[in-house]
Design brief:
Blueprint lengths: L1 H11 L21 E8 L2 E7 L9 E9 L6 E10 L9 E10 L4 E9 L7 E7 L7 E6 L9 E5 L5 E7 L4 E7 L6 E8 L4 E8 L2 E7 L10 E5 L10 E2 L6 H4 L1 E9 L4 E9 L9 E6 L1 E3 L2 E3 L7 E2 L6 E2 L1
Antiparallel strand pairs: 1-2, 2-3, 3-4, 5-6, 6-7, 7-8, 9-10, 10-11, 11-12, 13-14, 14-15, 15-16, 17-18, 18-19, 20-21, 22-23
This protein binds (2R,3S,4R,5S)-2-(hydroxymethyl)piperidine-3,4,5-triol.
The site of (2R,3S,4R,5S)-2-(hydroxymethyl)piperidine-3,4,5-triol has 9 residues, from strand 5 and strand 13.
């Protein structure tokens, strides 16, 4: 009897994730981690993203840091990066889609972000580092990875620990998958160009297959996101297919990352996306849903509240 009660309690105790709703942090404020990425370091997940709360200094750009053990309750760790126009790009300069990697050898947290001018012509990545996950991060430099234009970036760490940057490039119209250097401070080697006009690139390795997701180029407006698969990161990649009924425009969202949770019973791949509100960015929402993945197929089910048990990897609706 006791065992049954304990089981029932643990099965019902998981906090729900409510796609598209206001998502309060530990202080009751809507989470500000837009265009974000997640990295797991020991027992914590760290979520970094664009800090867009109201009342910020309009000359600065901010990257927020949150941490969680269960992916549902998030503790605000503060603004990990506060940056004033590092390359003299002028008003409305852009810092978007920050991603953080932890380098175990150098014990350094390495942040990449899309750095641009108001017209998106600079097309570089910025790099900042810290010796603590919550920062403060110090700006180091900006460059065009592999000498190529780089706009939306995505982060992918393979099961063997190799770290990759995914970056959207023009005029090639596609996204590059590129390996980082040993210290993660440089973008070292082109692995592949997925030659399709996509941004918001995200990759996951699931049961022997790589899945890549991207969105079409429609600014802040949502569109039908698509996926392709490959046996190796180098490709060849399959043709792109819809991840959801196209008329829903990916349930009004845009991909930013896929997060794999490997539990004792199940492996769950979470689609992380932004529902942008360009005029009230601080109120932009998150659409996180477990994907139906396997055998070369990937599908985003209709969003509804769900929870995950991080230990077992099991999802409940
Ligand atoms: C789409 C990109 O994915 C976003 O990160 C942002 O750059 C908007 N375009 C700007 O229109």
């Amino acid at each position: 009897m006791v065992a049954i009660i304990v089981l029932l309690t643990s099965a019902t105790a998981q906090k729900k994730i409510n796609p598209g709703e206001v998502w309060p942090d530990d202080k009751g404020n809507h989470i500000q981690a837009h265009g974000g990425g997640i990295v797991k370091i020991d027992k914590y997940y760290y979520w970094y993203g664009e800090q867009r709360r109201q009342g910020l200094d309009t000359g600065l750009r901010y990257v927020s840091c949150y941490r969680s053990k269960d992916l549902a309750s998030w503790q605000f760790m503060g603004d990990a990066l506060q940056l004033s126009d590092p390359e003299h790009l002028g008003s409305n300069w852009v810092l978007e889609r920050p991603k953080v990697y932890f380098n175990r050898k150098t014990k350094t947290y390495v942040m990449y972000f899309h750095l641009d001018d108001a017209r998106y012509k600079l097309a570089r990545v910025g790099v900042a580092t810290s010796n603590k996950p919550e920062g403060p991060f110090t700006y180091r430099e900006s460059f065009r990875p592999l000498e190529k234009e780089s706009r939306d970036i995505g982060q992918f760490i393979d099961d063997d620990g190799t770290a990759y940057l995914v970056f959207e490039s023009w005029p090639t119209k596609g996204f590059f998958i590129a390996r980082l250097s040993d210290d993660y401070l440089k973008v070292e080697k082109e692995v592949c160009l997925i030659n399709a006009p996509l941004e918001g690139g995200a990759i996951v390795h699931y049961k022997g297959l790589y899945y890549a997701i991207g969105s079409a180029l429609t600014g802040w407006n949502p569109n039908p996101n698509k996926y392709a698969t490959a046996k190796s990161l180098e490709g060849p990649w399959s043709e792109f297919k819809d991840i959801a009924p196209p008329e829903t425009n990916t349930y009004s969202s845009q991909s930013t990352m896929m997060l794999k949770v490997e539990g004792t019973k199940d492996t769950t791949v979470i689609f992380m996306a932004d529902q942008w509100k360009p005029k009230t960015q601080w109120d932009s929402r998150y659409l996180w849903m477990p994907l139906q993945t396997g055998d070369g197929k990937l599908w985003l089910p209709e969003p509804k509240p769900w929870s995950i048990d991080i230990k077992t990897g099991k999802v409940q609706f």
